[in-house]
Amino acid sequence: MFIRRYTALVIILLAAIGLPAMAQPSPAWNAADIRLQLKKLDTLGSVLYVAAHPDDENTRLLGYLAKEKLYRTGYLSLTRGDGGQNLVGNEQSELLGLIRTQELLAARRIDGAEQFFTRAQDFGFSKNPQETFTIWDREKILGDVVYMIRKFQPDVIICRFPADSRAGHGHHTASAMLAAEAFTAAADPKRYPEQLKLVKPWQAKRILWNTFSFGSINTTADDQFKIDVGAFNPLLGKGFGEIAAESRSQHKSQGFGVPASRGSSLEYFLTIKGGTPKKDLLDDVNTSWSRVAGGDKVGHLVDAALAAYNMDDPSASVPALLEIRSAIQALPDGYWRNLKLAETEQLIYACAGLWAEAYSTAPTVVPGTNMEATVQLINRGNIKVTLEQIDLPGKPNAAGQQELGYNKFTSISQTLAVPANTPESQPYWLAAAHRVGMYVINDPLLVGNPENIPPLQAKIRFRIGGQEFNITRPLQYKYTDPVKGEIYQPLVIAPPVVADLNSQVYIFTDTKPQPVPVKIKAMADQVQGTVKLQLPAGFVATESSLPFNLAQKGDEVEVRFNIHPEKNITDNHADTFTVVMQTNGKEYTQSLQQIRYDHIPLITLFPPAAARLVSVNLKHNGNRLGYIPGAGDMVAASLRQVGYDVTELTEKDIMSGNLQQYDAIIAGVRAYNVNARMKYWQPRLMEYVNNGGKLIVQYNVNSPLVTNNLGPYPFNLSRDRVTDENAAVHFINPKDPVFHYPNEITAADFNGWVQERGLYYTTNADKAYDKLFTMHDQGESPLDGSTLVAHYGKGAYVYTGLSFFRQLPAGVPGAYRLFVNLISVK
């Protein structure tokens, strides 16, 4: 029981001090870090910041609160940012949420705050909270906010946004509404009483709105309470404007790199509920040790340790810290007692120069198989440290008692049997199927956690100065890259076999068989079995099952099924099939998906090995397409699915190649935002159109653009969008040939769209453009700028803000038919 509680406290502390719990080297503090943490040990105050998305948070304020005021500081983001855009790759939805989760954790490691989430899924832009709460389960998300307040016990809660339209996004407004209601509900034992098995009611002193000046909206005023957060901290060697820039620049998928600022910087606040602060955010909050019954003695001991601290010899502070630890242990069990006990122990390890890590040299392991694990230790302080015991998964007492001599490196390796019940490396919020807007989390203890707790850990017991300590270190994968040096990544727990499909969607335009290759990969040695496809009604495979035999871990084999729709299947029929592998009497249906970017740890998940089968009545004109990549999308791959020969165009292709060989050229999403060469390619592309080509430009955000001349005639980009994917679409000129060739387009082609109709629509378009559609969200005026078509010379130009980049990979039949018509426009 003690070990379990201790492990949880260490994980909390690692987050609180801005150090990683996994996929990072073992933490090591310098003498200035230790002094800062000693000062924090003497501060008992907490602040919880609440907003809707990754990148909503005020990193300057978080850094100031965590590292200058030394409060325990947390950021509760209601969502993981799943519905946003992606500037670094083509991941969308849940996969983008995984990236943005890690970017938030990277930001917190810099600014020192902790990171939390609710079960809410970011489903894309929402124009008002009423719409938001039709998709989010309001009571459940409110319960999550209440739970986090009760668990975190903040003295003050701060909202990023107001509870009105000035928030600019339905999710933003909803976050403020929920925070204000949760402020009161968290203190009421009658609200969410089932939580009281895990947490206690909590009443924060006040809830504030951190007012702002964004663009044309300025909600700050001189009569508001304000604090200067632009301080310089000599122990950090930085000001909080510099720390804030480093933190915010971790949101790389959103293109949020910002310059550092230096000097005075005011933050403004309005009181929502509770007492209004006069001098400090935590006015009327006792942040000294006297807030804890019997804590005065601890406070005096910490003050003495701070006064005696020698930055040239931190190990000299260990005896004082051991006395502090004993005094804290003698206090009644409680929030601050447990948190500060963990902080004290981290300080003892740091001052003693104690370093420990546990790792594997294999990137993946399979439950029930063997693995090699290594624990490495060193005592780099002038303090006697005795190793008492190391417990490894499935192998207690893997190493016995020995003294760790000064600066002598100790390495202990063991062969372990990975426990058969070890859970696979699946993000806990993706473990169960979920509906749009809400994740399903069956274990209430996981609610709020930013990521999984590592399932395989080394538990190391030490003795220092007559006191016993327990350190928990996650087993990580460690290797050396010849360019990047030593790399730490999460150790992946895998099933014995996985399957990979080469597409998420298979489009059938007739009843002819289509090959579906399935790549089987062994995650362990000696994996044999059979694979079959679990097909929906209306589709048939010519092969019932196929064998596989893989001798070594990492071996792969590709098998091929041939699928065709039955003759009586209706057009626009779509359903999902699953790959089922049988080995050793068990069935496995997982694929392996990994997301690799240098700025975050490797992300691994095992989603179902499944894809959509779509039967669509589709005709297309032309065959060869050129594609100019933008910020990242799957449109080119989707077009290959329906028979197009798609070439990704290079600088040489565009500037000196024969563009007229292409029936159409398509610019990927945000190409004019992210590719500076578009400014120089644009004249060549316009020449291509003038000579008879067709250029289709997908959506771009309205700023920044590398050129304002996106088309042959003027138009502007706005922030207009239609977020309701089911919004009615009206054809401005139903006789326009684009609706009739080569496919007949009807209102039914807008059925089954996902997330939205489109975004960043055009405005102020020249009369040379034909506008194709009007559409609008509920209660708003019709928008006619989603799609423009113009004839230019012998060719045609199309700009579309419709979100084909979401619809085509999702296998929406009508989106394919419409996009093919745009490619074929005469």
Count of separate DSSP helical elements: 17
User: Which whole number gives the mean pLDDT?
Assistant: 94
Helical/strand content category: alpha+beta
CATH superfamily of the largest domain, by name, is LmbE-like
Number of strand segments: 47
CATH topology of the largest domain: Rossmann fold
- Beta percentage is 25-35%
Please report the distance between the alpha carbons of the first and last residues. Answer: 73 Å
Can you walk me through this structure?
- With 826 residues, the protein is α+β, with helices and mostly antiparallel strands.
- The protein has 5 domains: 37-44 and 288-345, no CATH class; 46-272 and 427-452, Rossmann fold (3-Layer(aba) Sandwich); 354-418 and 456-493, Sandwich (Immunoglobulin-like), CATH 2.60.40; 497-615, Immunoglobulins (Immunoglobulin-like); 624-823, Rossmann fold.
- The protein has 17 helices and 47 strands.
- The strands form 12 sheets. Strands 12, 14, 15, 16, 17, 18, 19, 20 and 21 form a 9-stranded mixed β-sheet that branches.
- The protein is globular, with a radius of gyration of 29 Å.
- The N and C termini lie far apart (73 Å).
- Residues 1-22 have low confidence and may be disordered.
